[in-house]
Structure formats: structure tokens, C-alpha cells
Amino acid sequence: MVKYKALLIDFDNTIIGSENANHLLFVRNMENMIGRKMTREDGYNFRGHTWKEIFKIMSERYLPEMPPQELREIFVRSKIDYFKDKTAPIAAGLSDILALDIKKAIVTGSSKPEVEMFSHLLELDKFDMIVSDELYDKGKPAPDGYAYAVKKFGLEPHQCVAVEDSHIGLMSANAAGCITVFTREFTNEDLSSAADFTVGSIAEVIKLLS
User: Fold this and answer.
1) Is the separation of the CB atoms in 115 and 132 below 8 Å?
2) What is the average pLDDT across 23-45?
3) Is residue 63 part of a domain?
4) Core-most of 7, 121, 163, 189, by most CB within 10 Å?
């Protein structure tokens, strides 16, 4: 008997190992626009924030003449251009996860174009829903993204397993009341204490779903 009814999976560094490229492209764009190298203090200004918050901070502190959405569009365009002829590591066991007879959703702090740019690498049509940050107000660690997915599936939070690689992602899923799984595959952090379960990759999640 299936214990859980839905699998909600973070995108960057959970489904696809894209976080290093995200950081590289953000720093490159940031330095080009402000005309200098980013410092450690600059890094502290952005650490732990969602993409929505990062571009708001960037606009307020560094480039007040440019609205946050314009800054984000520049970043997204550069990311699409970067990945158009490149690949990225895919989570082990993803094809097996997608073959499961269970509701599946991506829940991400990225925009829809940032997910769809990987359609040449991923079977995105196998997901029942993509919850990108255009669909909810407050980003992680707020529960909004996961709460949106749970509600759309017509389920209770405890019926949903959320898979994450980051502290703020796990905080978000925990706040929404989901069962949380920390995956180590693309990170060196140990966030086991913040999750209900810990796995080496999402391939191991299959055992939890039965």
C-alpha cells in the first residue's frame, strides 16, 4: 500500500546540479553591472535569500536605477544562453522516480523559464505540476510554494514527501507540514537534522514511498 500520495521535489541541486552555474552567472552579471569584483561582504548581503529577495537587494543597494524584475530578466537570459549548448548532471534515479504511479511536482524558487530551459535534458512533461515562483508570493523558507502544491493536488501535507538540498528549502517544506527528505547528492552540507529522512540521491526516495 502506498503510504504517501505525492512527491514534491526542489529543482536546482536536487533534480539537476545547476547551483554552481547559477552562482557563476550571478557573480559574472553582478560584477559586469556594478563595475567591480564582488567582495565577501557582498556575498553576505545575498546569502540565505530567495531569488526574488536577491534581485530586490541588488536593486536597492547597488543599482537603484534598475527595478528588480529587469535585473532578474538579465540573469535569466544569460542563464538560458549559457545552458543552450551545455549539459548539467541529472539526479541519479530520476527516470525511476518519474515512472512511479504517484503525483509529482517540482517546487522551486526559480522562474518557469529557468526550469523549462532544461527541457532538452529532462522529461518535464512527466511531472504533474511545476510550481515556479511566479505562482506564489513568499519564497523559501516561507511555506507558500509547498502549500500551493499540496492544495492543488487536493491532499493533506502529511501525505506529501518533499525532497530538498538546502536549509531554507527544508524549512519551507517543514513549515508547510510535509514529510521532508534531505538529499546529499549535489551538496557537501549535512542537513540531516533538519529533515525527517536523509538520502544519498533521490533514487533512494522510492523506498520511502511504499
Assistant:
1) yes
2) 89
3) yes
4) 163
Q: Which domain holds residue 163?
A: 6-17+88-208
For 77-82, which contacts have Cβ atoms below 8 Å and span 24 or more sequence positions? 78/25, 78/28, 78/29, 79/21, 79/22, 79/25, 79/114, 79/117, 80/113, 80/117, 82/21, 82/25
CB contact at 8 A, 25 and 180: no
- pLDDT tens for each residue of 156-177: 999 999 999 999 999 999 999 9
Say whether pTM exceeds 0.85.
Answer: yes
Residue 90 has φ and ψ, to the nearest 5°, of -100, 140
Total of domains in the chain: 2
> Please, are residues 10 and 205 in contact by the beta-carbon 8 Å criterion?
no
Write the CB contacts of 102 (distance below 8 Å, at least 6 apart in sequence): 2, 4, 5, 6, 7, 209
